[in-house]
Amino acid sequence: MSTIGVSVPRVEDERLLRGEGRFLDDLRLEGALEVAFLRSPHAHAKIGAIDAAAALALPGVVAVIDGRETAAALEPMVFDIAKIVPETVREATAPQVRVHPMPALPAERVTYVGQPVVMVVAESRYLAEDAVDLVAVEFEPLPAVVDAERALEPGAPLVEPDWEDNEAISFSFERGDVDAAFAAAAVVVEESFRSHRQHPSPIETRGVAAGVDPQDGSLAVWSSTQTPHLLQDFLARWLHRDPERIRVRAPDVGGAFGVKHSCYPEDLLIPFAALRLGRAVKWAEDRAEHLAAATQGRDQLHRIAIAADSEGRILAVRDSAVMNAGAFNLLGLVVPYNTFTHLLGPYDVGALGFEMRVAVTNTVPTAPYRGAGRPEAVFAIERAIDRLARQLGADPADVRARNLIGPEQMPYETGIVYRDGSDQVYDSGDYPELLRRACELVQRERFEATASERRRIGVGYAIYTEGTGVGPFETARVRIEPSGTVKVFTGASSQGQGHRTTLAQVAAEALGVAVGDVEVVGGDSAAVPSGFGTLASRTLVVAGNAVSEAAAAVRAQALEVAAGMLAAAAYELEVEDGVISVRGRPDATLPLGAVAGFLTPFNPARPRGAPPELAAESVYRPGPVTWAAGVHVAVVAVDLPTGVVEVLRFVIAHDCGRVVNPAIADGQIVGGVMQGIGGALHEEIVYDESGQLRSGNFMDYMLPTAGEAPEFELVHLDTPSPLNPLGVKGLGEGGAIGPPAAIAGAVEDALADLGVVVHRGPLGPSRVRDLIASAASAASP
Amino acid sequence: MKPAAFDYHAPESVDEALELLADEAVESRVLAGGQSLVPMMNFRLAVPEALVDLRRIEELRYLRIGADGALEVGARTTQAELLRDPAVTTGWPLLHDGVTHIGHPQVRSRGTVCGSLAHHDPHGELPALALALGATITVAGPAGRRQIAAEDFFVSFYEVALEPGELVVEARFPAPPAGSGWSFREIARRHGDFALVGVACLVTPAQTRLVVFGAAERPLLLADPSEVAAAVRPLDDLHASAEYRRQVAVLLAGEALAEARERADG
Ligand SMILES: Cc1cc2nc3c(=O)[nH]c(=O)nc-3n(C[C@H](O)[C@H](O)[C@H](O)COP(=O)(O)OP(=O)(O)OC[C@H]3O[C@@H](n4cnc5c(N)ncnc54)[C@H](O)[C@@H]3O)c2cc1C
Question: Fewer C-beta within 10 Å: chain A N or C terminus?
Fold first, then answer.
């Protein structure tokens, strides 16, 4: 019986629900010191004298380290990915990318509020915080720039004085005759749409601990990271150590959503302090630090125009976008280019003109956040399509249907070069069918029955495609123990996505064992020699296929050895529930574990030259990304006089190829949708004009709670990916991509007769009232 | 977000607590449920030298109906205990309904009724409820006990009519007379948030008590919705504009009064 496609209960849950999870802050390292940072109170300032005498005099304070000290030992940080631009991308979009390195601790200048300036190491976090209050730093404030549009204006304060302006990235693209299409169009709509800044805010904040092994001097690092191997590699280069002498482990990790993907100054500084002091050192980020200093997401403004014929067929799209990178251009093209390649999504559009400018500003750096540039693209194009539908007096779902790429057009070449340098080709999918299925489930009438002059009901749509399963590779190792237990080692650790279950299902299927006999081990750079990590909706595609291949190889090995043991031919053997049997000889059976036991060097009867264990390793290198897609439909009620928006129902039609575990897939999607609802209605990172963070706690940065969850309806359409043996596509980010656009569309629909246009979120009651008021004053001359 | 060092006392009687609070050489703070004070200490917005925790003072742990029929709530009584009491649900439905809007079960099972009054967040529900219900706050201090009417208790943001060394020991909510009607309305960003703006209204055969909160530095007791627009002094912040708060205060006041009157008739 197949174990793929079954909602096996998550094996990780029992421990976690019993409170037996062990997260970074639960680590008890012997004699560990703790760290607190003095963080910049200014968005932009020169650092003057630093006086740490009073802090050092405090009993229990071990070290106070500033940027002048680290400058000698630690090169400023740069990430390769920020500089990688494939040749084909260069030809197609002529990107200009500028990167200025980020010091672990700045010696001269601070460039955002929350930037670490001084590291205090003490016997406890309490003492370290006391000492931080005693460190005197002279700051000489400089003019700051917060807003990306403002940063790109001539004469704006420079974030990086070595540059002549604040433009970190620009690229552009044109396909087809855009001007001609606009000139010939029956209808043109043009609007500006903003995806405001958000914070990923996983339940567990960041954290790092490090110690030096007294036996061999190797460095042991624990980090709540998404990418243990990348961190190992980074530390090896920055600390000038052999990667073999650094072991990075991610213990249980309580969510990440992209915020734990980058290497941060703290990731470097904690191991640095441990090496310098010869003691274990731990830093567990608190919530205030997390909101102020971990990477944030979104923050794009799109000026988008659509040209269409009188039937609503889109002839051309023109989009000019500006993105805020924050104080450092950490990851280069990753997010802005994603926005570009996902702008047209499921639509068959002849001509496209696109340009993107990314500015550095005096705010915390932005980086991928669940969706990573896609929600921004979808917000722009889907909002614009809603405007087009309104202008035509047509049903927004019909206008979308008219423009969708059909299943007969698959594989569909978009004519765009994807970020990995390959041609962007949608491998499979049926977008019209997805839309049809979603629309069937909306139940608009049921809600309209509750409508009144005061309580308005609206329906909004968002359709997206998502390139998933990026390389470069993932490593898996599968080993069968003499006990019969199957161990699966992966480089793709989990932050709560349920890998211990889904990867076990994949291995169980390939081997012919029960899921319960498979144990998945991840989050340890020593588990497999190389690995990449969990991000970008890639794990099931890349790690899943690696596990499947390795398991198949182990199975073949096991059958070969068993054939000898059972005096049969390998092709006569089958494996079920962990037991090998010979077809037609019901008494000739052998558990897989016995084969592993037979191979141990302790067994004098083992064949000469046989391997000492039953194990195989696979490094899976995917080709181009595989394309998942989804249709989101939101039904909302808007209370006219108070502006309160309530999401009543949220319908999701989703295609992530072959589904390994439907319950986990649904959980991933619903979780993502809740984050999207947060962005649509509640969450916003706000800086004031001087660069002070105004939403630096959970009273002001409002995450949605279970109380804000609507009723959900999910339907899956499984079009298996032809690009990988398992036929899977990624789904981790999908849920978060559509909600801001779908909910904005629904609110606009509810208020259509008032002429309200939603240009940005979050749609809190006060903003909704403002929208109604400004529509009313625009209507009355 | 770790508090600065502080001394901790857990006295077992009000007298003992007052003695500790009377020491002028030490800057002491009363600790009740800790749902506001502990976050403030973690942010180091509050840096008391000593805490006087009420948790062991059994004499303050009560919720009872007094001789005159009023509801008497001791300073150790939590918001959750108040919600669980059926006498409150039937006799003080306005109080019950308003308190369900405070935070979440976790918060209410620690947060105290008197702590919310002493803390006086003008966007909080309990100060408004106390004012609407004509509550009296009993405080104990070096000079003995005194009673303060809710009208006089709430001064400004996080400021009440407590003198140094004083402690709130009880809040008394008179029983609404027979034939009274009530209404409670608030608009919050999410379930369980502090109100952007709200209204608590009690209509008795003798008077109308209309309280608007979240619209000024303290809850405002008004006689009629027509007074709201001129009386409010709302904040303009991340969550709502001053104009929004003003408009919605007017709207909610009208709705609440109508609903309270309807309930009074019925
Ligand atoms: C997540 C969250 C959500 C919340 N949501 C809401 C909400 O929606 N509405 C709302 O109104 N509140 C809300 N609160 C606050 C909560 O109601 C607090 O419990 C309340 O404000 C204070 O009560 P406490 O018993 O916890 O007091 P503490 O936090 O212990 O003390 C608060 C202040 O009052 C003083 N104090 C306390 N008791 C006395 C006393 N007997 N005599 C003199 N001084 C005293 C303390 O010294 C301190 O200054 C929320 C809190 C949290 C953590």
Answer: C
